[in-house]
Design brief:
Structural Genomics Hypothetical 15.5 Kd Protein In mrcA-pckA Intergenic Region, Chain A; Tyrosyl-Transfer RNA Synthetase; 19 helices; 5-stranded mixed sheet
Length: about 400
């Protein structure tokens, strides 16, 4: 037996894989456990549409599971949805996505392989593969597409929650949004895979591939849906909330974002985003239930997240930085510096916040000021019409600083 074909079947390892961070398994947990313990090598993939320039923790949860399978000896593929990203995944969207150009898509995924290397090995006898779904989807003709579409009904598509809500609210559903799960499902057929991994919010799309594999190849496709990192109300981490941790974040920002999470996310954060053993995670959960101060465990979580995705030294430094800036109210020694236009000595605070990129727009600047989230030289400013004199140190929230010189 070649080194590449050797598959690990340790029961403890397999059961840990099937339980940690796992929401659902299709057709069943028992069926997948039997397959993993059989010693037969599987081909597994994770598909990611490059709609942003960096992976985030949601991707990392699934990437970790894919990496675990690679360590067991199974063949794994990271599939970049360069074609499907131009269609736009309607999952959880109450309005149609803005189309992306080919250039935008390729620019977004420029760092993906490097970031994925924290979980996958692209070298060696069992190297992970990197593929792009435009290789087959861009060449599909109507002659080929129509038989694919015949495997699904409109009734099946409108069962999706977001489509039901759009219909109830009389919002449009575009035809290409119905085609998205069909395209993603065809990825499974094109690669002839045994299993797909993805977030639980991708279940509908992953099961579309399961349907096509069964009907077109008479083959069982396993689907493993991972848990999502959400707050206690069920809201996912996201760009809008400002708490989405990306793998491109610097250590201090990553640490600070985790510290902004609610206490109710501590235990799930340890399970989904760190390498801390599950028996220790359970001890942490029990300690919090028994009344121990959650802030101690949140600091531990923030440090573990930075350690997992960046490194030990960076985790220790980020912890020290957070304590200095947020507990001792000390300004960071280094911060981005900007020069005012035309060497002005005085300028509107709103303009200064936009200049320093602490906010994306004047509207957001006014909102932050009125809510008391902005300081100039350490003093809170609540007047959106206020001016500032340079040089000045501006602060937005607890961890974002900039200096106008």
């Amino acid at each position: 037996m070649t080194k590449k074909s050797k598959v690990l079947t340790d029961e403890k390892m397999v059961r840990e894989f099937l339980s940690r961070a796992v929401e659902n398994i299709y057709p069943s947990r028992d069926a997948l456990e039997e397959r993993l313990l059989s010693g037969k090598r599987m081909t597994v993939y994770l598909g990611v549409d490059p709609t942003g320039s960096s992976f985030h923790l949601g991707h990392a949860i699934a990437l970790r599971k894919l990496g675990e399978l690679q360590c067991m000896g199974h063949g794994v593929t990271l599939l970049i949805g360069d074609f499907t990203a131009m269609i736009g995944d309607p999952t959880d969207k109450m309005a149609v996505r803005k189309p992306l150009t080919r250039d935008e898509v390729m620019a977004n995924c420029a760092e993906y392989k490097k970031q994925a290397s924290a979980f996958l090995s692209f070298d060696g006898s069992n190297a992970a593969e990197l593929k792009f779904n435009s290789a087959w989807l861009a060449n599909l003709t109507f002659t080929e597409l129509l038989p694919l579409a015949a495997h699904f009904t409109v009734q099946q598509m409108v069962q999706r929650d977001m489509f039901k809500r759009r219909i109830e609210e009389e919002k449009p559903i575009h035809l290409h949004e119905f085609l998205y799960p069909l395209m993603q499902g065809y990825d499974s057929v094109a690669m002839d895979i045994d299993m797909e991994i993805g977030g639980n919010d991708q279940t509908f799309n992953m099961l579309a591939g399961r349907t096509l594999m069964k009907e077109m190849k008479n083959k069982e496709k396993f689907v493993l849906a991972t848990k999502l990192l959400v707050d206690p109300s069920g809201v996912k981490m996201g760009k809008t909330e400002g708490n989405m941790v990306t793998l491109g974040d610097d250590p201090n920002d990553m640490y600070g974002k985790v510290m902004s999470w609610t206490d109710g996310m501590i235990v799930s954060g340890f399970e989904l985003c760190t390498n801390v053993p599950m028996d220790e995670v359970q001890e942490i959960a029990s300690a919090i239930d028994d009344g121990e101060n959650p802030i101690v465990f949140k600091h531990r979580l923030a440090e573990e997240v930075v350690r997992t995705f960046i490194g030990d030294a960076e985790a220790a430094s980020a912890h020290e930085h957070f304590i200095k800036v947020h507990k001792e109210h000390v300004q960071p020694e280094e911060m981005p510096e900007f020069r005012p236009p035309s060497g002005k000595k005085k300028m509107p605070l709103v303009d200064a916040l936009v200049l320093t990129k602490l906010v994306p727009s004047k509207t957001e600047a006014r909102r932050q000021i009125e809510q008391g989230g902005v300081k100039a030289d350490g003093l809170v400013v609540r007047d959106a019409k206020a001016d500032v004199k340079t040089p000045v140190v501006l602060q937005k929230g607890k961890r974002h600083f900039a200096k106008i010189i």
